[in-house]
Amino acid sequence: MKRFGQILRELWRDPMGRIGMLGIFLVILMAVFAPQLSHFGPEKMVGLPKAPPSSEFWFGTDNYGRDIFSRILYGARVSLQVGIIAVGIAATAGYVLGLIAGYFEGWVDRVIMCVMDIFFAFPSILLAIFISAVLGRGLVNTMIAIGIVNIPVFARTVRASVISAKGLEYVQNAKSVGVRTGAILIRHISPNVVAPFTVQATLALSSAILTEASMSFLGLGIQPPDPSWGSMLSEARTFMEQAPWMAVFPALFIIVTILLFNILGDSLRDVLDPKLKL
User: What pTM did the predictor assign?
Assistant: First the structure.
């Protein structure tokens, strides 16, 4: 397993990896320093409704006279928070379930993977909407819903890696000398899971951000007046002809952020497993 510093150096040498790292770093800075970078509060009505982009309002104002640039900055906080926590929930649960299913196999594997297949039978956005409807609207419930939806992806990824690693000679030797199951899983099998698991986590972040935007667009995610890129798009639907900038800028940030995470995920995959590189 490569060290963290070596992975960063190899990512930086890859042009696409460099673009992904720099781009995501800028998005994180934008979210962290939103109060310092924004001209106005995200909920304050500071100008005329639907004012076009200008030197005062860089991205224009929305139908309530709120600064779109400020709302996008604060919306980045929401998107990253939802993405990181939702993926954290999915990764933790999926890792444990995949480790158990892949190592013990038998009826345990069949039961766990049967439940995961049931989750896979539903489109992710519809399942997230259903869970959110049951739990209720709001930021916390949105993160939980998106986290639950992404559990099967991690469980399958970890399970496949565990099954592959379980047949390695040094794992079999550890079993033959009586090493405990917990020690085998932690010391011998887990290192083989890290690479695909990390790549999947990176790619899942973009999926989580898109799902949050979709749910907020439908009114089931982040609730107004809290800024969210998806809810900003929802509000802009009625004013597409009068004020197209209301939809253009939130959509642009959604697309670019998701693209950056996908670029980083692809580059990270090539670094961690060069055999996959075409």
Answer: 0.85
